[in-house]
Amino acid sequence: MLSDDELALWHMWKRATESVRAEVAADIAAETGLSDPDFGVLSRVEELGGGRLRQARLADSIGFHRSRLSHHLTRMESRGLISREAVGNGVDVVITKAGSAALKRARPVHAAAVRRHLLEPLSASQTDALRTILERLADR
Amino acid sequence: MLSDDELALWHMWKRATESVRAEVAADIAAETGLSDPDFGVLSRVEELGGGRLRQARLADSIGFHRSRLSHHLTRMESRGLISREAVGNGVDVVITKAGSAALKRARPVHAAAVRRHLLEPLSASQTDALRTILERLADR
After folding, report:
1. Is the C or the N end of chain B the one with fewer CB within 10 Å?
2. DSSP assignment, residue B47?
């Protein structure tokens, strides 16, 4: 069993991690209309593929099950944010002009939201400590 | 825009927070069959209500939209983990015997998973630093 202190730390961890995630997503949605998965898809296709990325590689990168990603891409396609093109035995996800414009609007909003909700509340030494802690957690 | 260091910290934050959440949930699911929302519902109804809690209060506590919670409770009810009872102009969520047994099995698994994925990788001073950081983030 966990001690009271350990359980309190776990609850703080859950609350803080979920609220930072939700507030960054809410800022982006409010200013651009892009949901968290919309922004994740567009920024990955841009960063990993320069605007065109094999759907299977996108699925691995974003950590969605393939069927969930496929349903989500269908909705994004109907909103004109991406298109899909059959290539050999796979499918490429391609950012449209409208998708590219939305991503461009979202980038500074995302940066400001990360700054407001995660970086600014912390001192420089807390930021350093957080970096070390996250490295330890990633190395588990 | 974010600096490279700031963007790297954000990506580490996203990856670490998501992987801790997913691994704790996977340990509980593997050993008890309870999903993350199942465990969240059962532990909140137990802790906040001693086994019986008004559905509206559960919704506030767990942070689900009411319709999402309602659908999830319907599935938990069909699996025999909870029942729902109309009370006045509200509904009480009540843990069944099977739900109580599942929660009892899940508690030590949850404790071990939190220890393994969050607490053990950190030194005592890192744990103290993390507590301070999470307090700062909660106070935003």
Report:
1. N
2. H
Total-model pTM? 0.81
CA-nearest residue to B15 within chain A is A138
Cβ–Cβ under 8 Å, residues B40 and B62: yes
Distance CA A46, CA A51 (A): 4
> Across-strand partners of A91?
A86
Using the Cβ of B20 and the Cβ atoms of chain A, whether some distance falls under 8 Å is answered with yes
Q: Which two tokens stand for residue B125?
A: 């001073």
- Using the Cβ of B140 and the Cβ atoms of chain A, whether some distance falls under 8 Å is answered with yes
Which among B21, B129, B138 has CB closest to A16? B138
**Of B34, B136, B35, B49, residue with least CA distance to B91:** B49
Chain A nearest C-alpha distance from B71 (Å): 19
Length of chain B (residues): 140
pLDDT tens digits, one per residue of B56-85: 999 988 878 888 899 999 999 999 999 999
Percentage of residues in chain B with pLDDT exceeding 90?
Answer: 84
Touching check for B122 and chain A: CB below 8 Å? yes
Supply the ipTM of this predicted assembly: 0.83
Q: Which residues of A touch B129 (CB under 8 A)?
A: 126, 129-130, 133
Nearest to A17 among B17, B63, B111 (CB): B17
Nearest to B59 by CA among B71, B51, B106: B71
Written as six digits, the tokens of B29 are: 């699911």
Q: Say yes or no: B104 contacts chain A, CB-CB below 8 A.
A: no
| Calpha distance A102→A108 (Å, rounded) | 11
Phi/psi of residue B51, nearest 5 degrees: 110, -10
